[in-house]
Q: What sequence folds into this?
């Protein structure tokens, strides 16, 4: 069953076509990579999927097994509520808040009391708040961040901040997780650790994952399928082995073979 | 843990309330010092409510005096027509609600602006409100309204000021309050984590307007007299100064700064010629040495729970997460 179907996705900024006619399907439980040279439009695709940008043309539909839901044209918080979560290429944590608060804020959509409940702390307020704290600690300990729950996000190490971004995305209770360059700026040892971390959360949280990555060791190790983007269009799709030998992909990354000049 | 904290707060509040009564009964607080006290209370409400908008939600507003004036005029018009405490209660509620309503109406279109653009839009809004009051018949134009009935005594002053503080603190320690704070931290990330940022920006804005309306109503019901000039751009700046001085994102900072500035300005009234010079120099000095404001974005309670146990040899500092 395809959980995500992208059809003819196009985005133009004035005269520039950043993404053009992208078709993509993700099966439930898959781990798919989205690669391409710098400026190919990968992050723009993410922004289109999560509603940060509205597509110029094309559609995005999500099917959690309860029938397809159109995501294109919806606001980011709606798309998040449907079960799509993301991380950011340039880390966007709530820096001046604690690790615990970062996670608790991402759980906001499940909180039942409203503004009046918040003002007067009535009824189920205390119970729900305690529930949030417990759930946040539980999530953080699964991800090995619980010792840091009282620290400000800004004071975490770079690697921990990347992990917290993933933890925060998981706190929104997603079915589809979009990771934008999770290994950026990490050394090979950290990347290896992250690789196993991603495989583990996919299993533990029953996720479908789409990830953008430049680190080929990570992409080739864990992705089951790969889409290659260049100048806003999909130039190749297939298993890692197929992609490695694809002529157009090699050309996009290394330039055309000019013959034996 | 939580109960103990609530009890401490309650005991502290009752203490302040009783102290106020004793000082008034024994004559230590005379009419003049009570006027200073009333101004302080009103400024505390204004500053903390603006802090909700600017310090916690990150929306730079320069129109707080506009909302205050709505509360003041609506309350005054009602207390002139409905007699007794009923009129006052009705006036406060109506004034604050009217300010909140205008907050929603103004907030919906303007809150899509950011930073200095929003500041200019809110500034314009406050000026429009002032000019409207200047030209309306029911507000008696530039001459203003006078001989307004006085209702604010120590009971009301304490109830409304403490009530505002409790409600704002409650809100900020709830999920909707954290949603507002996340908007300040990173709007795009907040939106992607399921926060309807427009909703919470407008909520914070109109809630700030509501309490500014309460402060305005108190002003009208203490100082007998209203005119549109009281609520000009300078008034908005005065409130902003308290917020920045106390620390953006610190309720207790706003309270401390409101009290401190009132004390300074009362003390300086002995030197009328140099008053504004000294006042300004002090502000410059404080901003030079403490650009994040007196308390930054922490609360007094956090500082105490982190520092006190250290002083007494226990280990503290790890208590923070339960409170926030």
A:
């Amino acid at each position: 069953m395809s959980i995500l179907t992208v059809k003819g996705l196009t985005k133009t900024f004035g005269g520039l076509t950043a993404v053009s006619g992208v078709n993509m399907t993700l099966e439930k439980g898959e781990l798919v990579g989205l690669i391409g040279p710098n400026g190919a439009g990968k992050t723009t695709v993410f922004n289109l999927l999560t509603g940060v940008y509205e597509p110029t043309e094309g559609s995005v539909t999500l099917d959690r097994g309860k029938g397809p839901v159109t995501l294109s044209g919806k606001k980011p918080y709606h798309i998040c509520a449907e079960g799509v979560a993301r991380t950011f290429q340039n880390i966007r944590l709530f820096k001046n808040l604690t690790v615990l608060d970062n996670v608790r804020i991402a759980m906001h959509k499940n909180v039942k009391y409203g503004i009046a409940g918040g003002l007067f702390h009535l009824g189920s307020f205390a119970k729900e708040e305690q529930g949030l704290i417990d759930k946040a600690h539980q999530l953080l300990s699964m991800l090995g961040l619980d010792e840091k729950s009282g620290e400000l996000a800004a004071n975490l190490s770079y690697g921990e901040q990347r992990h917290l971004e993933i933890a925060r995305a998981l706190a929104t209770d997603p079915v589809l997780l979009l990771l934008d360059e999770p290994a950026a700026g990490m050394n090979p040892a950290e990347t290896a650790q992250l690789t196993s971390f991603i495989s583990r959360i996919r299993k533990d949280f029953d996720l479908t994952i789409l990830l953008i990555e430049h680190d080929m060791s990570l992409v080739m190790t864990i992705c089951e399928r790969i889409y290659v983007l260049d100048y806003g269009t999909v130039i190749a799709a297939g298993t890692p082995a197929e992609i490695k030998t694809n002529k157009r992909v090699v050309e996009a990354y290394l330039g055309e073979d000019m013959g034996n000049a | 843990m939580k109960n103990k904290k609530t009890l401490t707060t309650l005991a502290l509040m009752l203490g302040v309330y009783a102290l106020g009564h004793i000082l008034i009964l024994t004559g230590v607080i005379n009419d003049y010092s009570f006027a200073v006290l009333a101004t302080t209370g009103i400024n505390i409400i204004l500053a903390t409510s603006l802090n909700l908008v600017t310090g916690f939600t990150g929306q730079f507003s320069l129109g707080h005096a506009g909302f205050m004036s709505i509360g003041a005029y609506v309350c005054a018009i009602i207390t002139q027509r409905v007699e007794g405490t009923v009129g006052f209660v009705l006036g406060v509620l109506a004034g604050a609600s009217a300010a909140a309503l205008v907050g929603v109406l103004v907030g919906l279109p303007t809150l899509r602006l950011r930073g200095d653009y929003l500041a200019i839009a809110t500034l314009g809004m406050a000026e429009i409100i002032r000019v409207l009051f200047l030209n309306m018949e029911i507000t008696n134009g530039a001459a203003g309204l006078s001989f307004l009935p006085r209702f604010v005594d120590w009971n009301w002053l304490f109830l409304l000021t403490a009530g505002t503080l409790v409600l704002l603190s409650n809100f900020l320690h709830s999920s909707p309050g954290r949603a507002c704070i996340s908007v300040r931290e990173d709007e795009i990330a907040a939106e992607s984590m399921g926060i309807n940022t427009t909703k919470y920006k407008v909520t914070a804005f109109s809630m700030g307007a509501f309490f500014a309306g309460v402060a305005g109503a108190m002003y009208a019901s203490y100082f007998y007299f209203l005119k549109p000039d009281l609520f000009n751009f300078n008034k908005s700046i005065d409130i902003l100064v308290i917020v920045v001085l106390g620390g953006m994102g610190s309720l207790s900072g706003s309270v401390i700064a409101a009290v401190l500035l009132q004390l300074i300005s009362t003390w300086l009234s002995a030197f009328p010629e140099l008053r504004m010079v000294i006042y300004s120099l002090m502000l410059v000095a404080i901003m030079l040495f403490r650009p994040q404001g007196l308390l930054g974005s922490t609360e007094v309670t956090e500082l105490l729970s982190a520092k006190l146990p250290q002083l007494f040899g226990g280990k503290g500092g790890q208590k923070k997460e339960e409170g926030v």
Summary: The CA atoms of residues 198 and 226 of chain A lie 16 Å apart. The first helix of chain A runs from residue 42 to 49. Residues 96-165 of chain A form one domain. Chain A has two domains: 2-83+174-254, 96-165.
